[in-house]
Backbone:
């Protein structure tokens, strides 16, 4: 199944703004517009053609937004239960964007995520510009935009990208307030963004405050903490927090600790297992590609110059979230997102300040970068791709993807070998725009054909004919079906639940994975019929109902 909308941006026009990233002296506003243009070039087109719901967790917040629209309630419900695990900014933002069209669509559900990605890229540019100058700021923004893991999460309807955008943007007023120039009024903007970050996801939004405390304490000592005092800023923080906390407390006062406080803090309390920590290190290294190949050079240089205020602040901006995320009890890939802006800042600073030096170590890294890209390019020749692998190997459709990877490898290797930082950054960014943009479209086509939940929902509706629908949820919540059906699906957990549901007089239907059907012993039920099958995500899903009149 082909996506309904193809990429609408011609490749030559798409690469034009990237090619001129460092051409001449440009003002801050023009530079910000340029960085946002690159951001929109990457995160904008998928809004039109990317399938949305392929995982149950991805459906949760669009469904919460749908409930806000339907009931006009401030605190949404999920399958009849109040959702009090996280503050409601993300579902509220989806609901606001969906209100003009009257329903939550795939585009309106992803729009706040794309906005969060643009905020993170803009915040990284502004902070880099304030710390290291215009060129480093520009490079930091586009390095973040073209990081593989960051781009990937800009395509999922989860609140993590929105909170990262807000907390990253908070870094700019923080530096203006506590840096050498020390403009105290900027703290009002810092606390406003801090409050919005908490509004988006809870405790994670306080990461900039932790960075501020560590930075001020480490540079000035205890007296330095007074720099963060701002009555006006605290008043703004409280005012914004009251917008969502009063309704939440009104509905959750009886179960505040269990439903609100505990889920928000549990992810950050306790130490992870060593295996989980190692896994997170690997995930971050993969997610920051292709810039992971030069990040060690930037990190080591930053450690040597950590006493320089600007470098020390950027290093703190990376290290504090690193410590919080890696030492948290819960380890998930999306929790790594706060690390990307700090890493992009350090790589951009290193490229702008020291990228023109040629040393044996850098030439060794250049060779390693070139070999890494060659290994990636030749992998399909010596590793049999999975049938579910989305890249169409040995077809013309894959040519731009492979050419983009080859260009990224060549820019990395040549830029390091010859000491050409502009070639290193601008060349790699240009190639990654091709890789990520074209790869996203290929992936969308693959998802539409192999994970056709809209088709499954349509088949279920045809068989149900308006009757209730249930789903066995032994392995997953199956919220995708709720989203595409447009109504609530009854969760069924046991064989008894399934039999009781199918016995209802409305003659409902239920959706069961074939493996769960066998696990429940249902093949022996002579009075229950399989009326349809649908293959999605490599698994057979059965639509069943009771037989007879």
Residues:
């Amino acid at each position: 199944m082909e996506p309904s909308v193809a990429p609408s941006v011609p490749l030559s026009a798409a690469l034009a703004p990237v090619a001129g990233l460092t051409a001449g002296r440009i003002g801050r506003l023009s530079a910000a517009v340029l960085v946002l243009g690159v951001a929109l070039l990457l995160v904008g087109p998928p809004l039109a053609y990317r399938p949305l719901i392929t995982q149950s967790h991805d459906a949760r917040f669009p469904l919460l937004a749908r409930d806000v629209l339907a009931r006009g309630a401030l605190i949404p419900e999920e399958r009849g239960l109040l959702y009090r695990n996280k503050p409601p900014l993300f579902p509220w933002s989806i609901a606001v964007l969906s209100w003009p069209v009257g329903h939550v669509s795939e585009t309106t559900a992803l729009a706040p995520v794309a906005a969060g990605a643009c905020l993170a890229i803009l915040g990284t540019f502004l902070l880099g510009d304030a710390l290291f100058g215009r060129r480093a700021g520009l490079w930091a923004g586009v390095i973040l935009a073209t990081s593989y893991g960051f781009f990937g999460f800009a395509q999922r309807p989860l609140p993590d990208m929105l909170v990262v955008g807000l907390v990253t943007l908070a870094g700019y007023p923080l530096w203006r307030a506590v840096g050498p120039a020390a403009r105290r009024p900027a703290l009002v903007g810092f606390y406003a963004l801090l409050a919005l970050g908490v509004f988006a996801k809870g405790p994670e939004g306080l990461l900039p405050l932790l960075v501020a405390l560590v930075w001020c304490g480490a540079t000035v000592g205890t007296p330095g903490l007074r720099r963060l005092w701002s009555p006006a800023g605290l008043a703004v923080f409280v005012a914004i927090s009251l917008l969502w906390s009063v309704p939440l407390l009104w509905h959750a006062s009886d179960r505040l600790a269990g439903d609100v406080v505990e889920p928000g803090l549990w992810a950050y309390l306790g130490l992870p297992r060593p295996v989980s920590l190692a896994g997170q290190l690997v995930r971050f290294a993969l997610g920051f590609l292709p810039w992971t190949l030069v990040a060690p050079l930037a990190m080591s240089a930053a450690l040597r110059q950590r006493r320089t205020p600007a470098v020390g602040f950027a290093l703190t901006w990376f290290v504090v979230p690193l410590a919080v995320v890696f030492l948290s009890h819960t380890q998930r890939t999306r929790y790594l997102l706060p690390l990307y802006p700090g890493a992009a800042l350090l790589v951009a600073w290193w490229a702008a300040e020291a990228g023109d030096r040629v040393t044996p170590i850098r030439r060794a890294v250049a060779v390693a970068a070139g070999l890494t890209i060659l290994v990636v390019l030749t992998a399909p020749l010596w590793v049999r791709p999975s049938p579910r692998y989305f890249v169409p190997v040995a077809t013309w459709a894959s040519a731009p993807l492979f050419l983009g990877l080859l260009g990224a490898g060549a820019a990395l290797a040549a830029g390091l070998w010859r000491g050409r930082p502009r070639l290193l950054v601008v060349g790699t960014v240009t190639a990654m725009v091709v890789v990520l943009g074209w790869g996203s479209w290929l992936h969308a086509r693959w998802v539409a054909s192999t994970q056709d939940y809209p088709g499954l929902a349509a088949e279920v509706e045809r068989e149900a004919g308006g009757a209730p629908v249930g789903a066995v949820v032994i392995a997953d919540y199956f919220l995708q079906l709720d989203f595409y059906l447009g109504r609530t699906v009854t969760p069924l957990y046991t064989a008894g639940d399934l039999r009781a549901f199918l016995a209802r007089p409305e003659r409902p239907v239920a959706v069961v994975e074939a493996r769960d059907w066998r696990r429940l012993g249902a093949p022996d039920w002579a009075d229950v019929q399989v009326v349809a099958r649908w293959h999605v995500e490599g698994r057979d899903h059965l639509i069943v109902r009771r037989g007879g009149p």
In short: Residues 335 and 527 are 47 Å apart (CA to CA). Residues 1-20 have pLDDT under 50 and may be disordered.
